[in-house]
Write a structure and sequence with these properties.
- With 145 residues, this protein is α+β, with helices and mostly antiparallel strands.
- A 3-stranded antiparallel beta sheet has the order 1-2-3, covered by helices on one side.
- α1 packs across α2 and α3 runs antiparallel to α5.
- The N and C termini lie far apart (39 Å).
Length: 145
């Protein structure tokens, strides 16, 4: 990976960590789940405002305390799934899981800032941090079937 690409990935991660999207409390009736990484102490509490048909996400929000990579990954995820169908969110989860396990890379054109997670594979100890919010999203979406 080129030094320019590494710098771009780092800049995106730092930007989302400094000013995360959707970091706020959600109303009680939203679909919620919590995930924890016992290795580093990350905790993500995710909430989705599912439309009445449960086939689309009106908005996503999160709370919790986590490292920069986990916070950035959560911020990117919240931004990406708000206003999307639950099927689109499931597909995105699958693509992120694949990329984090060494599969197909995420593209900037299709995935926006989430493509910065392509750089995480170089830091195996951080994979759980990047994946945690996506696991929590998957948990909510799986329980809404």
């Amino acid at each position: 990976m080129s030094d320019d690409l590494k710098a771009l990935y780092q800049e995106i991660i730092l930007r989302h960590n400094k000013a995360p999207n959707g970091k706020s409390e959600a109303p009680g009736e939203w679909a919620k789940a919590t995930g924890r990484n016992p290795v580093c102490g990350d905790e993500v509490r995710l909430a989705l405002n599912l439309e009445a048909d449960a086939e689309s996400i009106g908005e996503a929000r999160f709370q919790g305390a986590s490292c920069a990579i986990c916070t950035a990954s959560t911020s990117m995820m919240v931004e990406a799934v708000s206003g999307k169908t639950t099927e689109d969110a499931r597909q995105l989860c699958s693509e992120v899981f694949d990329a984090l396990s060494g599969g197909a890379l995420l593209s900037e054109e299709r995935h926006g800032d989430i493509h910065a997670l392509n750089g995480v594979h170089q830091f195996p100890a951080r994979l759980r941090c990047a994946r945690l919010p996506w696991d929590v999203l998957h948990q909510i979406l799986s329980s809404e079937n």
